[in-house]
Design brief:
It is elongated and about 105 Å long. 18% of the residues lie in helices and 30% in strands. It is of the alpha/beta class. The chain folds into two domains: 5-226, Spore Coat Polysaccharide Biosynthesis Protein SpsA, Chain A, CATH 3.90.550.10; 254-440, Hexapeptide repeat proteins (UDP N-Acetylglucosamine Acyltransferase, domain 1).
Length: 463
């Protein structure tokens, strides 16, 4: 039976190798900050409590941790990983059970791997269990030295290892299970008498072994899971791993990805079977796409909900919007946040929408701006038509009724209502409401000037 479980995240590092003004915890991977991703994984373990160790003056990290279900404690000044763990004693010092300790810069860990670590720790009755991996080239990593009984005898850092120890391929991941409150009792005994002047968490392992406590190690199935992030090269590599996972999951679920390596999909994206994603397409956030759709190429979707049998064509951008079944969007459409495109509606080439609602079957085929507008079912919006929604101080809304027809190059000056079935003639600027079924025209009288001569052109002026 698994003990009570608490989790501790070390996130107080100074991020020097990231060359950044921001905390490493805030850098995103597949659209999610590192800390938020680690916390999401830990929440799936149903741990309680979860505590994150942060640095001083890290208000943004503190807010992110609390928003994702974690308490925080501050490490000030930063005196090493052992010292960081000790800062949680005020919250976890009386906790009796297992404390899973990990770091904010190890974002690729799977829930299944952590569950296996916890179960191994509980089954063996160990005081501590280390998650390890085998690397072909373990240079720079601490080596796991095991005894004949396979129990851990030491963690030897690369710089301190002899030739025999350097030949060991099993390395320390800095992910542990500890028996609590023993972790905090020993962390309080750590010394900073070393080259760095810091209290190392690995020294807790040494104290446990010296006290005759059993220390176990569990080998991770996939060594990529424990890869740490110390610079932007490693951040990009970790993102590639996550995107590979997302693409593989979707293809195994029946989604066609044409040239998968050029398609960028965040791990929370959901896509229905028989949908085809064209090359150079970006699908971000919590986007959900239905079945039998065709998306791209060169399309971008962010936090959108897309129905079944939808076509999103070349070069189209959509954000925080809803697209109904059978609709067509693009090519080169720009659908901004807060839009709804109804079933079988069309927002065609170079159409821009903002806070707009297109009803079922609406056609807006070409080069239009539809901002702050509701368009009723079956209406038609001609090429070059726009809603003039901003008066210089405030935004106003336009309402176009069902089956209305808006001609080409029409300007609708909001607030204004075009009634159901009404027609607005091409080139009109409409400032007043149009009754249902009426025809509205507003344009100057056409004139023809007989015998008109163009100005004399001096070709030398171009030289």
């Amino acid at each position: 039976m698994v003990d009570r479980l608490a989790c501790l995240i070390l996130a107080a590092g100074q991020s020097k190798r990231m060359k950044t003004r921001h905390s490493k915890a805030l850098h995103a991977i597949c659209g999610t900050p590192l800390l938020a991703r680690v916390l999401r994984t830990l929440r799936e373990l149903q741990a309680d409590p979860i505590v994150t160790v942060i640095s001083a003056d890290a208000d943004d990290v503190d807010a992110l941790a609390h928003a994702n279900g974690s308490a925080t404690v501050v490490q000030d000044p930063p005196l090493g990983t052992g010292h960081a763990a000790l800062q949680a004693r005020g919250v976890l010092g009386d906790f009796e059970g297992t404390v899973l300790l990990t770091c904010v810069d190890i974002p690729l860990l799977r829930v299944e791997t952590l569950q296996a670590l916890i179960e191994h720790h509980t089954a063996t009755g160990a005081a501590a269990t280390i998650l390890t991996a085998e690397y072909d080239d373990p240079k720079g990593y601490g080596r796991i030295v095991r005894g004949e009984d396979r129990g851990v005898r030491a963690i030897v850092e690369h710089r301190d290892a002899d030739e025999t120890q350097r030949a060991i391929r099993e390395i320390n991941s800095s992910v542990y299970c500890f028996r609590s409150p023993l972790l905090f009792e020993l962390a309080a005994q750590l010394s900073a008498d070393n080259d760095q002047g810091e209290q190392y968490l690995t020294d807790v392992i040494a104290l446990l072994v010296a006290a005759g406590e059993r220390v176990e190690a569990l080998l991770a199935d996939d060594p990529r899971e424990i890869a740490g992030i110390n610079n932007r090269v490693q951040l990009a590599e970790a993102e590639r791993v996550l995107r590979d996972r997302a693409r593989e999951r979707l293809m195994l679920d029946g989604v066609t990805l044409l040239d998968p390596a050029t398609i960028y999909i965040d791990e929370d994206v959901q896509i229905g079977r028989d949908t085809v994603i064209q090359p150079c397409t970006f699908i971000h956030g919590r986007t959900a796409i239905g079945e039998d759709c065709e998306i791209g190429p060169h399309a971008t979707l962010r936090d959108c909900t897309v129905g079944d049998r939808v076509t999103i064509r070349h070069g189209t951008f959509l954000a925080e919007s809803l697209v109904g079944d059978g609709a067509t969007v693009g090519p080169f459409a720009h659908i901004r946040a807060g839009c709804t495109i109804g079933a079988r509606a069309r927002a065609g080439s170079y159409v821009e929408m903002k806070a707009a609602e297109l009803g079922e079957g609406v056609k807006a085929g070409h080069v239009s701006y539809l901002g702050d507008v509701t368009v009723g079912a079956g209406a038609n919006v001609g090429a070059g038509a726009i809603t003039c929604n901003y008066d210089g101080a405030r935004k106003h809304r336009t309402v176009i009724g069902e089956r209305a027809f808006i001609g080409s190059n029409v300007s609708l000056v909001a607030p204004v209502t075009i009634g159901a079935g009404a027609y607005v003639g091409a080139g009109s600027t409409i400032t007043k409401d149009v009754p249902p079924g009426a025809l509205a025209l507003e344009r100057g009288k056409q004139r023809e000037i007989e015998g008109w001569q163009p100005p004399h052109r001096d070709d030398t002026a171009k030289k």
